[in-house]
Design goal:
six-stranded mixed sheet, Protein-Tyrosine Phosphatase, Chain A, alpha/beta, 16 helices, UDP-N-acetylmuramoyl-L-alanine:D-glutamate ligase, nine-stranded mixed sheet, 457 residues
């Protein structure tokens, strides 16, 4: 949407990482008086973002938030800044508008916005949707929580272009007018409860904000098989709705959508239906990736993409790094990097994808995990758990009576112990169910370290 920004004379951006640096640069380019403020000392800021700040001549402060922040007309917060932080709460108490970086970027977006959220599958679905649109000749820009900030690309998006935005609950917490043409919710399971006061209701509310500004010209796509998500959708929703499911019964509840019929992915609409692809031809494996594919198909069809283009992209899409990524095989043992599995539900899906016995590397910074959610799957699929990180004792205490659990000191120790336990056609799977910040910079760093160790075995 185009937005009259002139009423904001002075803006503070909180957080000097990827989103904050991009937002400050966008504001600077618009001639706004902007201050970038980060409570971390300068030496703890990523050098790449320090270079962006310096090259763009952005005014910045580090180590604490000065009173100048509270003299702003608008505060833009990075998703890494907790909602209950002093800087956000003080700004709100002083009557200052507080928005997220994706809200800011959306004000300057000339093209269409496809916003994709959910507890799991966001990165895969965002990437796949963007690839389908690119293959159809549509100028698509994959951005958001996926690695490139929306603010970094928004000025490059033409009127006939599409921003495909991976959208986290943290980014939705501070939206104001954010209005995607297509809002897509993949699933909702407990995650990030450390940021939501252990209340899943607050987390669900944040996810559902994705469609709060939509009207009857817009679309909401949701997973009809997710009972928590389905029951949480507001009754007074104005969007046109589309749905996807593993069964044909979804046709009784939606005018448009997708379903699975004996491995066939079917797109349906009020005039009929269309076979898109037999899902056995997908490179990406697992039922969760069938759901991700159905969601991407609906998005593409709503944007007018031809079935043959969609089919071709689906047949050639290899997935994304750190999400059930095959690393290598050694003497028949296959190593998979699923570092992006930062919650229990992600691990549930990962375990379903293998028939071979699994040595599971599990652990990190716990976010309020309830391991009962994967207890049955661990008993069925997992031969041995290697527990790492801050949560390793919790994991040991929960699983040790049901499956062998070994504690590891670090990732190298974990990989070596896992490789020693695996045999024949076994699987070594890094699928931690936890955040990475106890041992690594982020889940990407964790995944790359796992791959580095595996590749030198």
């Amino acid at each position: 949407m185009q937005f009259d920004f002139k009423k904001y004379k002075k803006v503070s951006v909180i957080g000097a990482a990827r989103s904050g640096a991009a937002a400050a640069k966008l504001l600077q380019n618009k001639g706004v008086n902007v201050l970038l403020s980060d409570s971390n000392p300068k030496e703890k800021i990523n050098p790449f973002f320090l270079n962006v700040i310096a090259e763009s001549k952005i005014r910045a402060e580090f180590g604490s938030h000065s009173d100048e922040v509270y003299k702003s007309d608008l505060v833009v917060v990075s998703p890494g800044v907790p909602q209950d932080s002093t800087v956000i709460q003080t700004s709100l108490a002083k009557g200052i508008d507080v928005i997220s970086e994706i809200e800011l970027a959306s004000w300057f977006c000339r093209g269409k916005i496809v916003s994709i959220t959910g507890t799991n599958g966001k990165t895969t679905t965002t990437t796949l949707t963007g690839e389908i649109l690119k293959d159809a000749g549509i100028k698509s820009f994959i951005c958001g929580n996926i690695g490139t900030a929306f603010s970094d690309v928004v000025e490059s998006i033409p009127e006939d272009g599409v921003a495909v935005v991976e959208t986290s609950s943290f980014q939705l917490d501070n939206i104001k007018y954010f209005k995607p043409l297509i809002a897509l919710i993949l699933n909702i399971t407990p995650d990030h409860l450390d940021r939501y006061n252990k209340r899943i209701e607050d987390y669900v509310h944040s996810k559902n904000r994705i469609y709060e500004n939509q009207d009857n010209n817009d679309f909401l796509i949701y997973n009809n098989d997710d009972s928590v998500l389905k029951s949480s959708i507001k009754k007074d929703i104005k969007s046109s709705m589309a749905s996807f499911s593993s069964t044909k019964s979804v046709k009784n509840e939606a005018e448009k959508g997708a379903y699975l019929d004996n491995y066939n992915l079917i797109f349906f609409y009020y005039q009929g239906e269309e076979l898109i692809i037999n899902t056995q031809r997908l490179i990406i494996k697992g039922m969760h990736n069938v759901y991700n594919s159905m969601a991407s198909v609906i998005s593409a069809k709503l944007l007018g993409v031809d079935k043959n283009v969609i089919q071709n992209t689906l047949e050639n899409f290899k997935g994304v790094e750190h999400r059930l990524e095959f690393v290598r095989a050694i003497n028949g043992i296959k190593f998979y990097n699923d570092s992006k599995a930062t919650n229990v539900n992600s691990v549930w899906y990962a375990l379903q994808g293998f028939d071979e016995p699994i040595i599971l590397i599990l652990g990190g910074r716990d976010k309020g995990n309830d391991y009962r959610e994967i207890e049955k799957e661990v008993k069925k699929y997992v031969k041995h758990i290697i527990a790492i990180g801050e949560s390793k004792n919790k994991i040991y205490n929960f699983f040790n009576s049901e499956v062998r659990v070994t504690l590891a000191d670090d990732m190298e120790d974990a990989v070596l112990k896992a490789a020693g336990e695996a045999s024949g056609n076994g699987i070594v799977l890094l699928s931690p169910a936890c955040a990475s910040f106890d041992m690594f910079e982020n889940y990407e760093h964790r995944g790359k370290e796992f791959k580095r160790i595996v590749n030198k075995l």
